[in-house]
Amino acid sequence: MQINAIITGGGIGGLTAALCLHHFGHSARILEQAKTIKEVGAGIQISPNAMHILRALGLDKAVIAKGFLPKASQIRTGREGREVMISSMVDYPVIFGAPYVHIHRSDLINVLREAVEERLPGSLQTDCAVSSYGQDKASAWASLADGSHIDGDMLIGADGIKSAIRQQMHGDDRPRFTGNVAWRAVVPVENLGRHVPPPNATVWLGAGKHAVTYLLRGGALANFVGVVERNDWREEGWTIKGSRRDALADFAGWHPIITNIIDKADAHYRWALFDRPPLNQWSDGRVTLLGDACHPMLPFMAQGAAQAMEDAYVLARAVAEQSDIETALQQYCRTRLPRTKKVQAQAQSNMRLFHQGPGPARLIRHGPLWLAGKADSKLAGNALAWLYGHNVTA
């Protein structure tokens, strides 16, 4: 029996969920509140565990063509630029079965959206704000802001960190401010002169702050994310503009690669980082959650998009395997909960690790990283196998 799913949210998780459901012989209708899907956000990292899903959907080559394959993962000191560790990523396709790709969020969205329009024509509806959900024994529906309803066999809340579906299911959450504020910017490499970020996934460490740089669009764009410990600004959101002056002040005295990319950026966005405890239940009858709606992650593992994509495939496969929708959704939750909780916990741990302390604390924290950087790449691969080597399509 073909299932018709209603998906609230046309981001990475929602679009991938629609494609995965189609992959398993089902249909979906995507309700996106934005009037148009524009170029928003910045770079994101698609690790091998997510590339397996894109390969199953026949989209891996398109993503690689629009992205950038980093040569290594690297840790450097923020001020001096001294290398703490480096580990090759060139052999990831051999070690983990798929490459690691850096891509602009809008480029990934466009790949997914074009595939949805081709395989599920007419299924993506924009300017469609969902306020709540309802259900009975035979169906589930989305209630729209204009008072209308859209029915389906099940409903998937992929509507992000401020999910209306999550709020109805679990009530208002009380996120904990982490004491960190993140900056982001994207700059054409041709504007950076001689201070271009290396072709790696590079973390720059500092006292109470860190930065991440990598390249996008075949190396034509440089992506910057900077995280600073501060308590005077707590607004959460991806599209809130800050100033060049404030961003430069936060990274004053840092390596020219960092200060140059901040100085040359046309726009500087910042958002406060909030932590939310893991949910123990994602489903309510015929309604379930996906991605940031159920396990919002701090950006210190670069797994937000990847875990949403894993959710999408596991959910679609459960629906294909079970004749009863509620049973399928419970199976999906049981499968995904342990893994997403582990990734969330590791991201929290990395937040502490990246903000080095002075003197002995720096040695204690960076010593193991330096040794790891000198180790054989296969050993480094073993340490990451639980994350990057996980293949939900197997």
In a nutshell, what does this entry contain?
With 394 residues, the chain is α/β, with parallel strands linked by helices. The protein has helices at residues 12-23, 48-56, 60-66, 92-95, 105-119, 164-170, 244-250, 256-264, 304-321, 325-354, 360-374, 377-388; strands at 4-8, 27-31, 43-46, 72-77, 83-88, 101-104, 124-125, 130-135, 140-144, 149-152, 154-157, 176-188, 201-206, 209-216, 221-229, 269-275, 283-284, 287-289. The chain is built from twelve helices and 18 strands.
Describe the protein in words.
By secondary structure, the chain is α/β, with parallel strands linked by helices. The protein is 37% helix and 25% strand. The protein is built from twelve helices and 18 strands. The protein has helices at 12-23, 48-56, 60-66, 92-95, 105-119, 164-170, 244-250, 256-264, 304-321, 325-354, 360-374, 377-388; strands spanning 4-8, 27-31, 43-46, 72-77, 83-88, 101-104, 124-125, 130-135, 140-144, 149-152, 154-157, 176-188, 201-206, 209-216, 221-229, 269-275, 283-284, 287-289. The strands form four sheets. A seven-stranded mixed beta sheet has the order 5-4-13-14-15-12-16. Strands 7-2-1-11-18-17 form a six-stranded mixed beta sheet, sandwiched between helices. The protein has a three-stranded antiparallel beta sheet with strand order 8-9-10. Strand 17 (283-284) and strand 18 form a beta hairpin. Helix 1 packs parallel to helix 5 and helix 1 packs parallel to helix 9 (304-321). The longest helix is centred in the last third of the chain and has 30 residues, at 325-354. The radius of gyration is 21 Å and the shape is globular. The two termini are 24 Å apart. The model is unreliable at 357-361 and 363-375 (pLDDT under 50).
